[in-house]
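Sequence design from tokenized structure. All designs in this work follow the same two-part layout: the structure record, then the generated sequence. An example of the structure record is given first.
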């Protein structure tokens, strides 16, 4: 065999192998990059995409070009369902552009990216207290960071909302890797083998249906999720010296909100901000760690920013309240198969509560039961009185929850002490 013929055969087999590899990865589409058809029991569930939202969501939202986007972290990713019946027809197609673990600055940059497609008319942003609480010792001056990670290279616009020249190169590299890498092949095989009813999954709309949580609750109990998250919250909030603001009452998080508001007004986009709900045990972790004052500053700071820049066109809702939804018994070890109504664990609420939030914010008549409001619109209320009332509500609801048998005079003393 001549060298030329050997080389030809070698190249032929390389091409065949590469083509086969690409075909499998394209058809299975483990990272939801190609939006190929989903086939039940074959590639319908996408467990490999669960931790890759910063990879596929920027490209998906640019392709889908939704009229409405839901933004934020993992809480609205699991709690606000784009397919909910509580969206109105004027919201059009809805995409869940949320990123677990991504900070507020990154979330806002992703929104700018989506807006640059020219299709977005409504933005619903879930803001999170923990995302604003940080160690500010190194923040000596106000600045607007550039962001050099792979995620920011996947956005159509840069930090100044100008065309990102790295976008197409980044997209080409990501698609090539998803087609030809062995890691992608491993994830394709993993996807095919993980097609059980409760596999971790991400829908075409970007929503996380939290099926894997249901499996944990079914076999181990909801108390496991609560116990694990409470431990994480303890570690998170037990850090000393955290604050909402840096020097001169400024932070990159509030600067991000300001710039988002300005963009929404400039583009005539309807913007609704909401503070995510937390189970009361989450709120108690904040209180026990001594950061309740920072939580109140956070709410006041959001309201101030909305009033200063929103021109009465931006709505701000607070769902992080002590309410009949957030104050529910904490699961115990022997409640192995009990499914709790509103929360998966202290930090993440279910889509059932998300629907009530949509009812409050948009007024849709989509739920038959007449339930109490899940949140409060902050735009036109006395914020100091509101926060004071929450302290009173905190006492009453916790006393009711624990079926307190304290003497009446002691209950009154506790109430006055809270006030």
């Amino acid at each position: 065999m001549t060298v030329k013929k050997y080389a030809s055969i070698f190249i032929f087999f390389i091409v065949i192998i590469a083509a086969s590899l690409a075909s499998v990865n394209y058809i299975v589409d483990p990272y939801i990059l190609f939006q190929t058809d989903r086939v039940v029991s074959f590639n319908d569930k996408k467990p490999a995409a669960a931790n890759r939202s910063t990879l596929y969501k920027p490209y998906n939202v640019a392709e889908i070009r939704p009229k409405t986007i839901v933004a934020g972290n993992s809480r609205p990713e699991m709690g606000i369902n784009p397919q909910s019946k509580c969206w109105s027809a004027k919201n059009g197609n809805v995409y869940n552009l949320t990123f677990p673990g991504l900070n507020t600055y990154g979330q806002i940059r992703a929104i700018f990216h989506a807006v640059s497609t020219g299709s977005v008319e409504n933005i619903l942003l879930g803001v999170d207290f923990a995302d604003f609480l940080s160690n500010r010792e190194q923040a000596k001056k106000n600045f607007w960071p550039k962001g050099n990670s792979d995620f920011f290279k996947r956005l159509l616009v840069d930090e100044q909302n100008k065309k990102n020249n790295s976008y197409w190169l980044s997209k080409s590299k990501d698609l090539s890797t998803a087609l030809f890498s062995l890691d992608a092949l491993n994830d394709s095989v993993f996807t095919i083998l993980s097609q059980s009813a409760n596999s971790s999954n991400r829908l075409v709309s970007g929503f996380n249906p939290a099926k894997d949580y249901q499996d944990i609750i079914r076999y181990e109990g909801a108390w496991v999720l609560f116990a694990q998250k409470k431990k994480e919250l303890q570690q998170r909030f037990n850090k000393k010296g955290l604050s909402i603001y840096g020097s001169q009452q400024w932070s990159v998080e509030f600067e991000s909100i300001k710039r988002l508001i300005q963009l929404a007004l400039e583009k005539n986009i309807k913007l609704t901000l909401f503070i995510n709900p937390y189970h009361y045990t989450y709120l108690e972790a904040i209180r026990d760690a001594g950061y309740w004052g920072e939580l109140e500053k956070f709410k006041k700071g959001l309201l101030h920013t909305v009033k200063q820049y929103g021109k009465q066109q931006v709505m701000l809702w607070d769902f992080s309240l002590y309410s009949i939804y957030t104050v529910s018994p904490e699961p115990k070890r022997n409640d192995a198969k009990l499914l709790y109504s509103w929360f998966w664990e202290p930090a993440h609420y279910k889509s059932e509560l998300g629907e009530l939030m949509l009812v409050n914010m948009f007024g849709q008549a989509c739920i038959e039961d007449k339930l109490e409001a899940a949140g409060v619109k902050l735009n036109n209320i006395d914020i100091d009185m509101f926060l004071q009332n929450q302290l009173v509500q905190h006492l009453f609801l916790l006393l009711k929850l624990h079926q307190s048998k304290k003497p009446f005079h002691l209950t009154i003393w506790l109430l006055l002490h809270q006030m």
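The chain is about 50% helix and 10% strand. We note this feature because it recurs in several other targets discussed in the main text.
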